[in-house]
Amino acid sequence: PKGKGPQGKRITLKVAKNSVRVAFNGRRRLDLSKMGIATFPKCILELADVEELDLSRNMLKKIPNIIEKFQNLMWLDLHSNQLDELPAAIGTLRNLTYLNLCNNKLKSLPEELTLLRGLRTLNLGLNCLETIPTTLGTLRELIELGLFDNALTIIPKSVKKLPKLEKLNVKRNPLPEFAEEEEPIDTVKRIESLYLVEKKDLCGSCLQTCQGERDELHKLEDMTPGPSNKPSFPSLVTPNSTARDNQEEWRMK
């Protein structure tokens, strides 16, 4: 189709201007998400005064250093592209409070990322990170940090102890400290109360339930052999008439 090729869709300045929206917070957002862009469109430098930029869900493999022209940016969304690195110029966007880099191919982070001291939300999930710099702990305004679905084997203490951090997602990483021990399978069904009632005193639905539970118990006995010496309870007798009279009260409880 026209306008498409190996380099993806071509974005013109007119298209970019028509993609500027005013967000609910009053900021101007340039929304170029899901546009089939494979190369950073230089024409958007004409709109570098926007406060928010959305380039998510495209085919971008590189963000050039000219990103530094967007000095007003407070919100930058680059998730679901094909980025394998970030430019050092990312550190010049000192007004950023939100940065989403989720679902890319990042293998490392530039040291300059730690210059974004105003960041409150940083999403690095679904990448190829094996380590994160300890200097990430200098981002003391961070409230949310996503590190899920990477190849991390350690989280620096400086990151875990960030003073304002409320949400730290490290799921699905090969982290020994977060490895969950497998719980032993308990084949015995636990109960809180045991009532002894004669079979003839049970109503139809209760009898059916008891029979079902008995069948399940027999299955468990087949699966887990019991001890050879069965305990005996010679003093245990069947319910007397008093128990039979009080069974309605037991059912209510």
From TrEMBL:
The keyword Repeat applies. One of its GO terms (cellular component) is cytoplasm. InterPro entries: Leu-rich_rpt (IPR001611), Leu-rich_rpt_typical-subtyp (IPR003591), LRR_dom_sf (IPR032675), LRR_domain-containing (IPR050216). Residues 219-253 are annotated as: Disordered. PROSITE patterns: LRR (PS51450). It comes from the Eukaryota. Keywords: Leucine-rich repeat, Repeat. Pfam families: LRR_1 (PF00560), LRR_8 (PF13855). The keyword Repeat applies. Residues 226-244 have a biased composition (Polar residues). PANTHER family: LEUCINE-RICH REPEAT-CONTAINING PROTEIN 18-LIKE (PTHR48051:SF42), PTHR48051. This is LRC18 protein. It comes from Dryoscopus gambensis.
